[in-house]
Structures are given as structure tokens and as C-alpha cells.
Write a structure and sequence with these properties.
Blueprint lengths: L6 H22 L5 H33 L3 H7 L7
């Protein structure tokens, strides 16, 4: 059994959500498409991750050549050891 919500409360919630959407759209900027912005950020994140992965491969090879650990290479180059 579902609890019933009065029509008045439903309309108040709808109005509240519509106002929130309007504020967020205004904050985003006129004529901006949120989906395009999200897609752009996702592409940029993929590029970042690919570059980071390539750097980690190189660091691994350097560690192998120097016969040391990846952690030590990070320390020697003042790189973060945590993500």
C-alpha cells in the first residue's frame, strides 16, 4: 500500500523542482547544453587517464632499468604515491 500525497503537496514539489531547474540552468549559462558539457568532461577525463597510464608505464620501465621500485621512482621525482 502506497501513501497518498495530496495534489497540493505534489504541485508544491513540482514547483520547487522547476525553480531548482531554472536556477541551475541560469548558473550553467544561457544557451549552454549540460549534456554537451558532461560529454566534454568525460572525453577530457579519458584523455587524462590515458596520459596517466602511459606515464605509469614509463615510470615502471624506468624503475626496471634502475632496478628499483616504482614507489622509489615516485619518491625520487616528488610524484604522489596515492591517486
Amino acid at each position: 500500500m502506497h501513501a497518498r500525497v495530496s495534489q497540493k503537496k505534489q504541485q508544491a514539489r513540482i514547483t520547487e523542482l522547476e525553480e531548482q531547474v531554472a536556477r541551475l540552468e541560469q548558473e550553467l549559462g544561457p544557451g549552454e547544453d549540460a549534456e554537451k558539457i558532461v560529454n566534454k568532461h568525460i572525453k577530457m577525463l579519458h584523455r587524462y587517464n590515458e596520459a596517466k597510464d602511459a606515464a605509469q608505464i614509463l615510470i615502471g620501465r624506468l624503475a626496471s632499468l634502475k632496478e628499483t621500485t616504482i614507489r622509489q621512482i615516485h619518491k625520487d621525482l616528488d610524484l604522489p604515491t596515492e591517486d
